[in-house]
């Protein structure tokens, strides 16, 4: 049996997020979906797996169902497959942030950088005087990254603020492009950098996963594999599953 895997997120105003936890768990349980979904006042984030019909039903509910009332109509989605169920159980968690930066003034629902589609990414990162930043953690960068990208050498996303403060200058670094696994970290990072005075900030829409899904390997500027936070461990071009190289992904965090 092949399972359908959905990596999803959206920054959206969910002041009632605590009330959504129980009903969302009931919906996922009824569909026999496993994985993790995070709910916060700023939106939803997570990766889940199930049968194709089950994942399609969940996506329809999130986008158009009565539970969220149309507030997730711009859901960012990446689909892939797994030959075995990549999660051990279902978790619906309440969080302060759906991806932890730790800066209360950063609000991607109000301000974010310029989205760049996967098809246009190669042209952008070849531009002169561009600073290309991998916003992921060091162990993820070690498995694969884009040619020429800077590794901030963080152990968690909340350290990104320190990297910006110590290594970057809005007066010197006029044009910045960022990327991450699925788009959520660099979307929040772009919002933070704009608040710090950086003028031109771009980020890869849909993240590395969308790039690997859409850009032919013969045209790729990506080198290596993309770490994912489940038991598949990593994906390559075409979102092809690679062998499990470490312990189950549910014990890790993409903060």
Automatic annotation (TrEMBL):
<dbReference type="InterPro" id="IPR036873">
    <property type="entry name" value="Rhodanese-like_dom_sf"/>
</dbReference>
<comment type="function">
    <text>Catalyzes oxygen-dependent 5-hydroxyuridine (ho5U) modification at position 34 in tRNAs.</text>
</comment>
<dbReference type="Pfam" id="PF00581">
    <property type="entry name" value="Rhodanese"/>
</dbReference>
<keyword id="KW-0560">Oxidoreductase</keyword>
<comment type="similarity">
    <text>Belongs to the TrhO family.</text>
</comment>
<dbReference type="Pfam" id="PF17773">
    <property type="entry name" value="UPF0176_N"/>
</dbReference>
<dbReference type="InterPro" id="IPR001763">
    <property type="entry name" value="Rhodanese-like_dom"/>
</dbReference>
<protein>
    <recommendedName>
        <fullName>tRNA uridine(34) hydroxylase</fullName>
        <ecNumber>1.14.-.-</ecNumber>
    </recommendedName>
</protein>
<dbReference type="InterPro" id="IPR040503">
    <property type="entry name" value="TRHO_N"/>
</dbReference>
<keyword id="KW-0819">tRNA processing</keyword>
<feature type="domain" description="Rhodanese">
    <location>
        <begin position="126"/>
        <end position="220"/>
    </location>
</feature>
<dbReference type="InterPro" id="IPR020936">
    <property type="entry name" value="TrhO"/>
</dbReference>
């Amino acid at each position: 049996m092949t399972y359908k895997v959905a990596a999803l997120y959206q920054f959206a105003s969910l002041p009632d997020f605590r009330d959504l936890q129980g009903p969302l768990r009931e919906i996922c349980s009824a569909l026999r979906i496993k994985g993790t979904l995070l709910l916060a006042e700023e939106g939803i984030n997570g990766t889940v797996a199930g049968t194709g019909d089950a994942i399609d039903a969940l996506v329809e509910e999130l986008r158009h169902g009565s539970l969220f009332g149309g507030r997730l109509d711009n859901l960012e989605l990446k689909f892939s497959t797994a030959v075995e169920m990549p999660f051990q159980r279902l978790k619906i968690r309440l969080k302060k942030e759906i991806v932890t930066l730790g800066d209360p003034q950063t609000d991607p629902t109000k301000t974010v950088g310029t989205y760049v589609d996967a098809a246009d990414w190669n042209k952008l990162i070849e531009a002169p005087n561009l600073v290309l930043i991998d916003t992921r953690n060091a162990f993820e960068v070690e498995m694969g990254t884009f040619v020429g990208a800077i590794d901030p050498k963080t152990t968690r996303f909340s350290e990104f603020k320190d990297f910006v403060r110590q290594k970057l200058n809005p007066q010197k670094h006029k044009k910045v492009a960022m990327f991450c696994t699925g788009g959520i970290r660099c979307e929040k990072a772009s919002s933070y950098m704009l608040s710090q005075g950086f003028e031109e900030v771009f980020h890869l829409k849909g993240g590395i996963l969308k790039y690997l899904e859409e850009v032919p390997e013969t045209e790729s500027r990506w080198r290596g594999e993309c770490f994912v936070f489940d038991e598949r461990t990593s994906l390559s071009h075409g979102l092809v599953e690679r062998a499990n190289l470490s312990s189950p992904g549910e014990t890790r965090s993409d903060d």
